[in-house]
Design brief:
420 residues; mainly beta; Neuraminidase; six-stranded antiparallel β-sheet; five-stranded antiparallel β-sheet; 1 helix; 30 strands; 1% helix; globular
Amino acid sequence: MLSAMRRRDVLQAGLAELAFLVSAPSLFAGCSKDPPPNRAPTNPSPAPLPAAVMPRESGPSSRLVSRIPEIGPLGAPDANGMRLPSGFTSRVIAQTFDVVVGGKAYVWHKSPDGGATFAAEDGGWIYVSNSEEDRGAGGAGALRFDREGAVVDAYGILKGTSNNCAGGPTPWGTWLSCEETARGRVHECDPRGLVAAIARPALGSFKHEAVAVDPVLHHLYLTEDESDGCLYRFVPASVGAQGHPDLSAGTLEVAVATAAGGVAWRLVPDAGFARRTPTRHQVAGALRFNGGEGIWWHDGVVYFATKGDNRIHAFDTRSATLRTLYAAGAFKAPLLTGVDNVTVSASGDVLVAEDGGRMKIVAILPSGEPKEILQLVGYADSEITGPAFDPSGRRLYFSSQRGRRGGTTFEVTGPFHARV
C-alpha cells in the first residue's frame, strides 16, 4: 500500500513486475474488475479508474537495474529481419490488416506509432499503440498479454481522431494519445478499452507529438512537431486526494530562456487556439525546437528529442536548466540519426527510435555514449515507433510503421534489465 511506503521509494521503484500492488486511485469510476473481453467503451466521462492497470514505471518493492551498457554487438538479421545482440530474440506480435487473436474481431491498425505498457493485476500487461492515420482514421489500439506473455486479446481504445503520433502514459494508469495536426488535441484513454476516451483541451491545441507526466511536481511536459516548435508545460489547477493532477483545468505555459541561461515558463494566452494566432507564436521569446518528438520523465529529468537537428535534450526540473545529452553533429559517423520516439531504462539509459536513419533503436547512456540496441533490415521507407518495456524490463515492444504489408509490431526479449 502506498500509505505504508515512502513516496520516494515508490517513485524510484522502477520497472517492477507487480505494479498493481501499489494502491492507486481509479481512473474511471464504475468499471468492473474483470470485464468481458472486447467490451465497447460506453462512458464518455472519465473519473479515476480502479488499479487494474498501472504504467510499467510504477512498482512496490522490486528494483531493476539496466544491463544495457553490457550489451554486445549486433548480429546478422534473424527471420524477422532484425539484427540483435547475442542472447536476444524477436517475434512479431501484430501485423496491420491481420486479426491478432483468433476468435477476436479486432484487426491491427495501420501506421502504428507511439506506445506504452501497463501492468495488470493478474500478472499480465497491456501494450497500447497509436495509429498515425489522417482524416479521422487514426486512434489507438491495445494488445493484452497474460502473465506468460501470450497475446490473449486485442481491441481499440480510441477512434475518430487524426494523426495520433506519440503520447505518454500517466502514473494513474491511462494513455495520453496526441494528435499531430495544427489544431490537434490530447485524448486520455483507458488501456483496457472499457471507458470511452475523453479529450483534454486544457493541454492545448497545436501539433502535438508526445507528453510526459512528472509524478513529483504534477506537471505535464509536451513537445510540438514543428520546425519552430515549442516545449510546453501544463500546470493543473488542482491535484486530487490521491495525488494525481486534474487534467480538465489548468495553465498551459511555454518555455523561455532566462538571463542566467536557465529556463522559465510563461503563460500561453490562448492555449485552445480559438483565435488566429497559433499556440507557438503567442509568446515572444519562446524557446524554439526543431521538430519536437518523443519525451520521457525519469528521476527529475525530462528527456526529449528534436528530429530537425538530431538532438536529445535533458531538462532538469529541479534546477530548471536545459542541456544537450546527444547531438548527431558532434560525431563524424553518428550511430543515431532521425531521432524520434523515446523511452528510458530503469537506470536512465535513453532509448531512441530512428525515423528513417538506419532503422535502429540506440541507447544514449547516462555518460552520453550512444550504444546500438537493435536494427531492422528490409523495412523500406519506414520508421521505428513506440518503444516500451514490459513491467519485468525483459521485453521491449516497438513497431515498424510501414513496410512488409504495412505496420509490424514486435517484441524483443533479452537481458535488458536485472533484478536487484
